[in-house]
Amino acid sequence: MYAQRMGSLPPYLFARIDAMKAEKIEQGVDIIDLGVGDPDLPTPPHIVEALCTAARDPKNHHYPSYAGLPAFRSAVADWFQHRFHVTLDPKDQILSLMGSKDGIAHIPEAFINPGDVVLAPSPGYPVYRTSTLFAEGTIHEMPLTAEAGFLPVLDDIPKEVVAKAKLLFLNYPNNPTSAVAPMKFYDEVVAFAREHNIVVVSDNAYSEISYDGYKSPSFLKADGAMEVGVEMHSLSKTYNMTGWRLGMAVGNAEILAGLGRVKTNVDSGVFDAVQHAGIAALSGSQECIGEACAVYKERRDVLVNGLRSLGYQVTAPKATFYVWMPVDDCMAFAARLLNEAGIVATPGLGFGSSGEGYVRFALTRPVERIQEALDRIAGMSR
Ligand SMILES: Cc1ncc(COP(=O)(O)O)c(C=O)c1O
């Protein structure tokens, strides 16, 4: 019944984990879910208020404009200037998205012909791979290893692969490894993209979730980046708005026009009231971000210190709300966590073949639950 391409789609790992989790809950197990990266904290009240006000205004009840409200795009430009010191023209260098997933899922369709190569990190956010499959492109996984700081080694990509490459996905701060990228790396990426005529898509969905004074840069700050790429941003993690579906693609106008053309054919934009809430988020006080990061930091410290005291080797992340822990066999370890301790963690393999040897914990549960998880892990057989 289904088209052939459905057969090549990997089973969405989170859906499978959800099914296993549901089974355990049915058996009465008190599950501690450190699996999916969905903040447990609520959206700040001033943003919710802005939505309510905008939702009551009939002016906002119509089809939205495709590119996004001019006022939303202006708010994005102001935020970008202030946060990253990058100037964007709201007219054609900003496109609203229904979450950054929307942009990631559709951008290959604008640039990839059957057989063209998309370079994507492994481990990596699964949608890089599936969006490539939908566009009938071929994925080339760039391994992210601890030795290389979880940055792809561009020189390691075989020449014949580079020759066919049309698009490159990057993601820093990184899901799932929580690694961050120095500007020097972005300079290398720009040179590589220019030399080989490759469109760069920098996924910066976790730009605001960071600790210990670290501030994630924008790829677009690198010299020449605006000529070769775009960056995906999201309000999901920054303002605890995963359910609202709001993000933006910013950067090179021609690349954005390609993505925009695809999207005008498949969706009708973001509900205007949600964009008004987005304006309130981006232009209002940013204190809520610091508060959320302080919560994640406390959880990070409890989890990392606790795991270390149990003999596990873990690095404290500078950014994102993930802890990427080396283990021998990721599927076996995740299964043991679930069966012996009632803990959901994500096996690294779910993010690509180079994710083997790791599990990912998300810091999206209260500190008491994380402490409880550590107590249970302490009771597991080793
Ligand atoms: C690396 C990365 N990019 C993009 C997204 C998509 O987020 P959203 O569509 O909510 O903006 C996620 C969500 O988990 C992610 O981890």
Q: Biggest sheet: strands side by side, in what order?
A: 2-8-7-6-5-3-4
Tally the helices: what do you get?
A: 14
Q: Just name the CATH architecture of the largest domain.
A: 3-Layer(aba) Sandwich
Largest β-sheet summary: 7 strands, mixed
Beta strand count:
12
What is the approximate shape?
globular
Task: Tell me the Rg in angstroms.
Answer: 21 Å
Q: What's the helical proportion of residues?
A: 40-55%
CATH fold name of the largest domain, please?
Aspartate Aminotransferase, domain 2
Total domain units: 2
Mean of the pLDDT scores? 96
How is this fold's topology laid out?
Blueprint: H1 4-8, H2 13-26, E1 32-33, H3 45-56, H4 70-84, E2 94-97, H5 100-111, E3 117-122, H6 127-134, E4 138-143, H7 159-164, E5 165-171, H8 183-196, E6 199-203, H9 225-228, E7 229-234, E8 247-251, H10 253-266, H11 272-283, H12 287-309, E9 322-326, H13 330-341, E10 343-344, E11 346-347, E12 358-362, H14 367-378
Parallel strand pairs: 1-10, 3-4, 3-5, 5-6, 6-7
Antiparallel strand pairs: 2-8, 7-8, 9-12, 11-12
Helix pairs in contact: 3-11, 4-11, 5-6, 5-10, 12-14
The site of pyridoxal-5'-phosphate has 13 residues, from helix 5.
Domain Aminotransferase class I/classII large: 30-377
GO molecular function: L,L-diaminopimelate aminotransferase activity; pyridoxal phosphate binding
Family: Belongs to the class-I pyridoxal-phosphate-dependent aminotransferase family.
List keywords for this structure.
382 residues; alpha/beta; Aspartate Aminotransferase, domain 1; Aspartate Aminotransferase, domain 2; 2 domains; three-stranded antiparallel sheet; 12 strands; binds pyridoxal-5'-phosphate; EC 2.6.1.-; PyrdxlP-dep_Trfase_major; DAP-NH2Trfase_DapL_Desulfo
